[in-house]
Input
Amino acid sequence: MKFITYKKFDGGDWDSIDIEDLLNRLADFLLQSGYQSQFYDFYEMDGDRTLEQLRQAIQNALMEGDLFPEDQMQQMMEQLQNMSPEQQEQLVNQLIERMEQEGYVSITEPPDPSMQHGQPRRGEGGWGPESRAQFELTDKSLDFLGFKTLKDLLGSLGKSSFGRHDTRDLATGIESSGASKKYEFGDNLNLDISGTLSAAIKRQGLKLPLEIDYRDLLVHQSEYQSSCATVLMLDCSHSMILYGEDRFTPAKRVALALSHLIRAQYPGDTLHLILFHDSAEEVPLSHLARVQVGPYYTNTREGLRLAQRILSRQQKDMRQIIMITDGKPTALTLEDGRIYKNAFGLDPLVVSKTLEEVSKCKRAGILINTFMLASDYGLVHFVQKMTELCRGKAYFTTPYNLGQYLLMDYMQKKTRTIH
Output
């Protein structure tokens, strides 16, 4: 039986807070890449990302006031400021419970002898401050954050905000584009009915029955969308958070946006994620939010080798590697399994072995597009050599426009004009 709980009106409509708006406001906290942390274990939840940290992040978002409806903002902000710390904590706990009930987070707590039947300790409004609970983002949260990122990135592509890159509407299947053309033998009979009728009327005048001749036939020019297998390689070496700039969080956002784009608009495509550091490993997209950088070197060659193994199993029209990095290759896996490392300059051994792997990608018909978040001279020369070997593209960009370049490049490669 379903139960309804009633509570005393407290002067503010706190249920009017939209959980999706709250999640969007917490995106930087939820997708943090270790920029504020020191060294930690790779691929593990940061120890600070507990339920208490989530509670603090929500409280900060509330104090900013953007979550409240405009007509109630002043009243609710005043009431929030007049609340006691215990009342504020109860409100935050209610919001966390709503996030859990709506499927945006899952909350777990380590076993504790004082818990009964394995249930977490909760206070009146939720989890008490003594709780050691942690939270995980669900697939629903990742999908929402990917959609919001994709919408923000593509929504910013105006007439002058993005250089010379053309803008395109999202579409699925085969879509007409451009002007019609006269039908020629061998064309798909994607008939432009109104254009064909107009041509017949123009030739013989308006009369019934209307005789349509071969020369009246007009067909739409359309876009053919081929299937594509993509491996996204993310550099998670320590340099991605050095020099006062977080480069890894924007890369994670782009990965989420690309994943949502493929699932929503190109369902025939596949996307795999590889993190490369001292070595390389494939990571499920569902775990993307909690991966972070670490005290690692950059083993680009090992990432390319793993990407080739993944793509060799894909039967698609196109196979490509999208690599996001900010540094030169500084590590190499030797034949005996040892990791050779050299962070000083461009090591000839590391560079030559990496370029050999690039040549193997070219022979296998795999395109490599590199999105470089740095621009020093030696690195530019290396990337130019790599793109020359594989006939790919190199984009020297920043964390701020990385997503725009990457998504537009992906969508433009997906289509070609046919008749």
Q: What stands out?
A: The first helix runs from residue 19 to 25. The first strand starts at residue 105 and ends at 108. The chain has three domains: 14-136, 179-220, 225-418.
